Amino acid sequence: MERLYNLILWLLTPVALLRLLWRSRRVPAYRYRWRERLGRYDAPPLQADVWLHAVSVGEVQAAQPLIRHLRDGDPPRRLVVTTTTPTGAERLANLSPEPIPHLYTPFDLKPVVTRFLDRVRPRLVVVMETEIWPNMLRACEARDIPVILANARLSERSARGYQRFGSFTRQTFARFRCIAAQAEADAARFRALGAPPARVCVTGSVKFDLRLPASLIERAEVMRRHWGIERPIWVAASTHAGEEERILDAHERVRRQSPAALLVLVPRHPERFERVAAIIARRGLRLTRRSEQTPCTADTSVFLGDSMGELPVFLAAADAAFIGGSLVAVGGHNPLEAAALGIPVVIGPHVFNFAAVADCLLEAGAAVQVADAERLGRQIAAWLGDAAERARVGENGQRVVEANRGATQRLISLLDAMLQQTDET
Question: Which UniProt keywords apply (predicted)?
Fold first, then answer.
C-alpha cells in the first residue's frame, strides 16, 4: 500500500501544480512561492524549535493562542508555520506586527519532505486538526521528531475512508507521538484506526476559547449604519458552490415576511467572489459589494462580503446567521464565533466537520438545524420577526461557549511538557 500511495502522489503532482496555476487566475498568490511546495527555497535554512502546520484561515485562527505562547513564552520558542492556502498565509501575517516565519506546505513526497526537514530542522511538529501525511510522519519518526495532532477531529465519514486502507492506516496513526482530540468520539475513532490508546487524549476544542477584540462591537456598529440600522439583517457565512442559489431562495421567502430584510452573503473562498456576484445579478436582486466601499441603499437586497478578515464584524452586526458548507456535503464551518457574539445560528444537515460543536449548540437550544432552503428561510424569517426569541437563543450560545473554554490551556500544557522532554534529550 505504501508503494501505491507514493506512486499515486507522483502521478498527481503535475495535476496539483496545474491546479495551483488554474487557481492563480483568480487568486494570483497561488502562483508565487510555488517552489516551496516542492521543497525548494530561496530563504536561508531555518532552525526551528517547533514546526506548526495550519492548513488555512480557520486553522490559523484556532492556532493563534498556541503561536503566541510559543513565541512569547518562557523560554520563547523559534517557530515556523506552514499553510496550504495563501489566505492562511495572509491571516498569519496579520497576527503580529513582527513577522512569523512562514512556508507553504510541502507535498508529501519523500524527497520533498526530506528537503523540508533538512531546511527547517524542527524539534517538535504540531499539526492542527486533520492533516495526515504518511511520508512526513515516517520521516519524522526516523529522525525522532515528535509529531502532535492538535485539536484533532475525525468524522465518522473520514474514519470509514481510512479503514479501507487497513495496516497502512494503522501504521500511519501509530506514528503520532500524541493525538489531542476535540471530543471523546474523535478519540475513539483515532484509537480504532491504530493510534496507541496511551497516546490519545481529549483536550477539547480550542475554538471555544476564541477571544473577541474590544474594537469588534464598535466596528460592528459602524457596519450596521452602513447597512441601515433599522433593517432586519442576516448573514450567510462561509458559503460554497451550490449553496448561494439556495440561500437566495431562502432570502426571497424572508423578504415576503420582512420586505426590508438584507442578506449579507460571504463566500468562503475569495476566488468565487465574482462568480457569486454574477449569481446574484442573474436573480435581478439589487447588490452592494463591500469592495466598492459604498453604503447600502433602501432597495439593496444583498450585500456581498467580498473582503478578507471581516466576517466577525459582519456577524457582530447581524441579527441571525447561517453557517455555510452545511447545505452541501462540505461538512460545515465553525459556528462558535456567531454563538460567542450572541447571534442565533442556523446550520444545514452536513456538519460532520463540527459534529461535536453542532451537537453542543443544538442540545443547548443555541442553534437550529434545517434540511433545505425552504426551512432555512422559514427559520430566519421567524427570528427576524421575534427579537425576544433571538436574544434567548443567542444567550444560550454564549453560555455554551463559556462552559467549554479551557482547551487551549490544556493543549499548551501538553506542548510545554513535550518541549521540555526535547530540551532534556
Answer: Cell inner membrane, Cell membrane, Lipopolysaccharide biosynthesis, Membrane, Signal-anchor, Transferase, Transmembrane
Beta-bridge partner residues of 29: none
Same domain, 299 and 348: yes
Query: Which residue type occupies 29?
Result: A
Contacts of residue 117, Cβ cutoff 8 Å, sequence gap at least 6: 139, 140, 143, 145
Same domain, 141 and 249: no
Domain shared by 242 and 382, yes or no: yes
Q: Is 215 exposed, middle or buried (0-12, 13-18, 19+ CB in 10 A)?
A: exposed
- Count of domains observed in the chain: 2
* Annotated active-site residue in 2, 36, 59, 230: 59
In the structure grid, which three cell numbers stand for residue 224, read together? 450596521
Beta-strand relationship, 367-369 and 200-202: unpaired
H helices of 123-177, in order, are 134-142, 156-163, 166-174
Q: What is the pTM of this model?
A: 0.85
* Cα–Cα dist 405/265, whole Å: 29
CATH code for the domain of 350: 3.40.50.2000
Nearest by Cα to 5 from 199, 125, 171: 171
In a domain, 7, yes or no: no
pLDDT in tens, 243-270: 999 999 999 999 999 999 999 999 999 8
Q: Which of 138, 147, 143 is nearest to 52 (CA)?
A: 147
Give residue for cell 473582503.
307
The contacts of residue 371 (CB under 8 Å, 6+ apart) are 348, 349
* Residue among 181, 187, 115 at smallest CA distance from 148: 181
Q: Which residue has the cell 433571538?
A: 390
Specify whether the CB–CB gap between 82 and 133 falls below 8 A: no
| Cell reading at 323 | 453557517
Domain span at residue 378 reads 216-403
Alpha carbon separation from 111 to 41, 141, 144, 172, 184 (Å, rounded): 14, 15, 18, 18, 36
Residue 218 annotated among the catalytic residues of the structure: no
Q: By CB neighbour count within 10 A (0-12 exposed, 13-18 middle, 19+ buried), where does 322 fall?
A: buried
Q: Are residues 259 and 344 in the same domain?
A: yes
Query: Mapping DSSP to helix (H, G, I), strand (E, B) and coil, where does residue 342 land?
Result: coil
Q: CA–CA separation, 208 vs 268, rounded Å?
A: 21
Q: Do 46 and 36 contact (CB within 8 A), yes or no?
A: no
| Residue matched to cell numbers 452602513 | 226
Q: What is the pLDDT of residues 375-407, one digit of tens each?
A: 999 999 999 999 999 999 999 999 999 999 999
What is the amino acid identity at position 217?
A: I
